[in-house]
Write a structure and sequence with these properties.
Chain lengths: 71, 572
């Protein structure tokens, strides 16, 4: 990833945040609409949880050698 | 009647499978495409309420029945058969071609079946024909996986049949109609039978077991029909069953978790089907008009982009001979077009704006929220993150990027593969830009606008931060040589033991019985090869049958005497 690509993504995020606090300021259909930048937090938190949970489950429970069933 | 019978979409394709072997080899692939086109034309033009009935052994069967719900599934099934047919155009394997036609035809048959008997016939046909698409790969592992797949589906079909018989004997009706949520044995058996095909956890293990081992083109067909025809039946028979909402949401998360864990392109995609079908099953469980619309729309979109992604993964397998992420990477220069087309599918499945996932996924997820089930909604949002993470970022990153260049020799792809992927990618973008083109076919009226500021903000924030999280943690998802255990462990690992108990032990018992019986036969025939040894103690012991023996005179004379005595008694 080049720097300008990161900047582009940052700008995009900024736009969504601005929209959230202006156009969507009064939007309320779920309890989490009260949490600022909820979807950004949710996206990041879920990624971290899935990667680490996946790693944990893989390492401790389900990972086997490819010839596991043939032995 | 006969003409109408041959105008049933499913029958057209199955009939095509009989025609195909009769035409010259090099026309078959092109002729293959004709049947889905005819079926598509019929599906689109038949009006709502059209029905074709027949009577069999006193049962009133409805062979072909059209309404909005069956039409939307029929259109996408016929269209996918066409696209996958183009993708498989270069294949010269008659077995695969006929199996694919029968498979697509029976999926269409299930969709338009108005009674359970017709549905069951097509249902079983679907299981048998799709098995061939696994076996056609002709490797020892695909042989074994195909057999497991077949046995699992025969089991599921058996559950469905048992449920249908029970249902018929208690209600007297075999019409396909929605059943009220209950714990009646008939309904539960039918639900379990359909759940096998819908890959509802924990009955899903056949899917990630068989699909990655199917042929390159077979997997494309399989990704579309089995699970989605089961989704259709769930939607038709079990709408609003609350248990499905929770199983669906759990499937969505279970599938993506495995998609994050697995390290093989087609395995990741297969697990991801479980996750995506979870969205649909959840929508069916919620059961509001919006949720059912969302589930139908999502099935429609999903078939398109999942077929596209399986075509992309198949293209990589065709070109490089492997789908293991650990062996891939750096293909971005050598397989640029495949990458771009795959990414259209990946962006679609991740629900990014301007792609068709956006217009259907948001609908299902929102329907959960509107129905007051915010927990299910958050579960689906979590699964959505996992979708982008696993098939939208991890898979393409470790296939096409990750390394500067790849030293794998690339076998050039047939043009028809690009054409098929191009059509699917075009449709993904088309429906993303023109949601109305899909919404008009949905079973209920649609009052839903996907392109709102709220949705755009939501999906942009989620996707950006998922991407950032992936970039930070991507090393943790790198390819490895491994397999992941799943519920198939319960029947694959004890298999040697069961083989020992139920096959080898019984074999050995039969062997023992055979030995004993033969032993007796030898013993007795040995005794009787010369009865004189014990009948006449004075006879020569070294007697041979072919030489004359005075002892034989004694026996013959005795037998004659008996006849004479009997004769005398009889006549007196």
């Amino acid at each position: 990833m080049k720097t300008w690509q990161w900047i582009l993504l940052g700008v995009l995020l900024l736009i969504t945040l601005v929209l959230e606090f202006t156009v969507l300021a009064d939007y309320d259909s779920h309890w989490w609409n009260a949490v600022p930048a909820f979807y950004a937090i949710w996206g990041f938190a879920c990624t971290v949880v899935l990667v680490y949970a996946g790693k944990f489950i893989s390492k401790n429970i389900v990972k086997r050698d490819p010839d596991y069933y043939d032995r | 009647m006969i003409a109408e019978f041959f105008a049933i979409p499913g029958i057209i394709l199955i009939f095509g499978a009989f025609i195909l072997p009769l035409v010259p080899r090099n026309v078959r692939s092109s002729l293959f495409l004709v049947f889905p086109i005819i079926a598509l034309a019929i599906v689109i033009t038949r009006p709502d309420g059209y029905a074709l009935s027949a009577t069999l052994a006193g049962l009133e069967l409805v062979l072909f029945q059209v309404d909005a719900l069956s039409r939307v599934f029929g259109i996408i099934f016929a269209a996918t058969a066409l696209i996958a047919g183009i993708y498989a155009w270069h294949i010269k394997d008659l077995g695969q071609q006929t199996a694919a036609l029968v498979y697509a035809g029976s999926a269409l048959g299930v969709t338009f079946a108005g009674d359970f008997f017709t549905l069951l016939v097509f249902w079983e046909l679907m299981a048998v024909s799709s098995t061939w698409l696994v076996w056609a790969r002709r490797t020892p592992s695909s042989d074994a996986a195909g057999m497991r797949y077949l046995v699992y589906h025969v089991f599921g079909g058996g559950l469905l049949l048992a449920g249908i018989l029970w249902h018929y004997s208690t209600t007297g009706s075999i019409l396909v109609e929605s059943l009220p949520e209950s714990t009646a044995i008939a309904s539960v058996l039918m639900l379990l039978g359909v759940a096998v095909n819908a890959a509802v956890i924990p009955l899903h293990a056949w899917l990630p077991d068989a699909y990655p081992k199917a042929t390159i083109t077979g997997a494309v067909f399989m990704s579309a029909f089995t699970t989605k025809s089961a989704v259709y039946v769930l939607m038709r028979v079990f709408p609003g069953w609350e248990v499905l909402a929770w199983f669906g949401a759990a499937m969505a998360i279970y599938g993506v978790t495995y998609a994050v864990i697995c390290k093989d392109m087609r395995e990741i995609l297969a697990y991801h089907i479980v996750s995506q079908v979870g969205f649909m099953v959840c929508g069916i469980g919620i059961g509001t008009e919006m949720a059912l619309n969302g589930a139908a729309a999502h099935a429609y979109s999903h078939i398109l982009y999942k077929a596209l992604m399986f075509m992309g993964a198949g293209a990589v397998l065709y070109a490089t001979g492997t789908t293991k992420l650990v062996d891939l990477g750096g293909l971005k220069k050598k397989m640029k077009w495949t990458m771009l087309l795959y990414m259209v599918g990946a962006f679609s499945i991740s629900g990014l704006p301007l792609f068709n996932g956006f217009i259907s996924k948001a609908m299902t997820v929102d329907a959960a929220g509107y129905a007051g089930n915010e927990t299910a909604m958050l579960m689906l949002l979590l699964a959505g993150v996992g979708t982008f993470l696993s098939v939208g970022l991890k898979l393409p990153y470790y296939t096409w990027f990750h390394k500067e260049d790849s030293d794998i020799d690339i076998k050039p792809l047939p043009v028809n593969m690009y054409i098929a992927m191009g059509i699917a990618a075009f449709l993904c973008i088309f429906y993303g830009l023109v949601p109305g083109a899909l919404y008009v076919y949905l079973p209920f009226e649609v009052n839903y606008e996907p392109y709102t500021v709220y949705h755009l903000v939501e999906i942009t924030q989620i996707s950006l931060l998922t991407f950032a999280g992936f970039w930070l943690l991507k090393k943790k998802m790198a390819g490895e040589r491994m397999i992941a255990l799943d519920f198939d462990w319960f029947y694959r690992k004890p298999a040697p033991f069961f083989r020992k108990v139920f096959v080898n032990a019984i074999d050995n018992f039969f062997g023992w019985v055979e030995k004993v019986v033969h032993g007796w036969a030898i013993h007795i025939s040995g005794k009787f090869d010369n009865p004189m040894k014990w009948l006449n103690p004075f006879a020569e012991k070294e007697y041979e049958a072919k030489t004359y023996s005075p002892g034989l005179d004694v026996i013959t004379a005795f037998v004659l005497l008996v006849f004479v005595v009997f004769g005398i008694f009889l006549f007196i």
